[in-house]
Amino acid sequence: MIATPYLLYLGHSNDEIGIKTSRGLAVFRPDICVGEFRHDDCGLTLNLPRMDFAAAYAAGARTLVLGIANAGGKLGEDLVQDALAAMEAGLDIASGLHQRLKDEPRLVEAAVRLGRALHDVRDPRPDIPVGNGKKRAGKRLLTVGTDCSVGKMYTTLCLARALAARGVPADFRATGQTGILIAGDGVPLDAVVADFISGAIEQISPDRHDAGWDLIEGQGSLFHPSFAGVSTGLLHGAQPDALVLCHDPLRRSMRGLPHYTPPGLADCLEANLRTARLTNPDVRVVGIALNTSAMDEADAIALCARTAQEFDLPCSDPYRMGVEAILDRLLESDAATAATATETV
C-alpha cells in the first residue's frame, strides 16, 4: 500500500496536461494531499500549500507523488535529484512514469539505506489472463474519447460519484496511473502486454450481481495512431453496456501528433460502437462529455446545448456542469432494457 498523505510534485512543469496526475489527485482526493512541490520556474499550481520536502513531512506527508508526464515518461536528472532529497527528508516515492523507479540505481540505493519505499504504479500484476470475451454478469459503462487527455478519467469519476449519490451501487475501475492513485487499485493498461489488454479489463471488472455499475476509465482513442491498440483492447475487455464519448472541443491536433486532426464526433461514436459490439452487441451511447475548462461559461453551456441537439444525446462538462442528464439517460435505458428482457422471458 502507498502511504498517505501525499505531497504532489510539479517540479519544473509548465504544461497543464503534463501535470494531470497531480491535478487529478488534488481534485478528487484533496483529503490525502497536504501540499505541492514546485521549483521557482514552474508556472503552474494546484492551489495547494507550496512546501519543501521537510515541511511536507512535518505536515504529515508520507509519499511524494511524481505526478507529472514528460516525453517518453523518463526520470530526468532533476526528477532523480528531487526524489533523493525527498527520501532524505523522510518521504516514500510513488511514480506513474514509464521509466521505473526500481531501474534507477541511485534511487534503489537510497531507498534501502533510508528504509523508504519506491512505488512504480505502472507495474501491472503478474497474473493477468488472456481475454476470453465470455459474457459477464453485471452492468458496465466505459468512457471513450476522440483523443488522449480529453477528460475520460474525470468523466468516469464524476459518473461513479453521482450514481452512488443516487443510491445506485457503482465502482470506479481505474486503468491509468492517476486513477490507480485515486482509487487505490486498478490496472496500468498502457504497461500491459498487448495480448493481455482485454483480459486485464475482464479481471478488474468481473461478474457483479448487485444491480450496480462498473464505471471503467477509458484510455487513448481509436483515432490516435499511437494508442488505438490499447483503446481497442479496452473496448473488447470492458464489454460495455453503455459508452460516454469524451471530447475537447478546442483541440486542433491529436495529443503529441500535430500532423493529425481529431475525428468528428459522429465518426468517433460510430467507430467505438462498431468495435464494442464484438463482445456486447447491445452496447449503446448514453451521453457526450465535453472538456470546456478553457471556455467561458456561456460559450460552454451553448456548445453543450448545440451538441445535445445535434446528436440527440445528453451533453455536459461533467466536472463543471454535472452529469445528471447523462445519468438520467443511462438509467432510463437500463430500465428499458430490463423491461424488454422481462417481456421476452
Automatic annotation (TrEMBL):
<dbReference type="Pfam" id="PF07755">
    <property type="entry name" value="DUF1611"/>
</dbReference>
<dbReference type="InterPro" id="IPR011669">
    <property type="entry name" value="DgcN-like"/>
</dbReference>
<protein>
    <submittedName>
        <fullName>N-acetyltransferase DgcN</fullName>
    </submittedName>
</protein>
<dbReference type="InterPro" id="IPR027417">
    <property type="entry name" value="P-loop_NTPase"/>
</dbReference>
<dbReference type="InterPro" id="IPR035086">
    <property type="entry name" value="DgcN-like_C"/>
</dbReference>
<feature type="domain" description="D-glutamate N-acetyltransferase-like N-terminal">
    <location>
        <begin position="51"/>
        <end position="124"/>
    </location>
</feature>
<dbReference type="Pfam" id="PF17396">
    <property type="entry name" value="DUF1611_N"/>
</dbReference>
<dbReference type="InterPro" id="IPR035402">
    <property type="entry name" value="DgcN-like_N"/>
</dbReference>
<feature type="domain" description="D-glutamate N-acetyltransferase-like C-terminal">
    <location>
        <begin position="130"/>
        <end position="327"/>
    </location>
</feature>
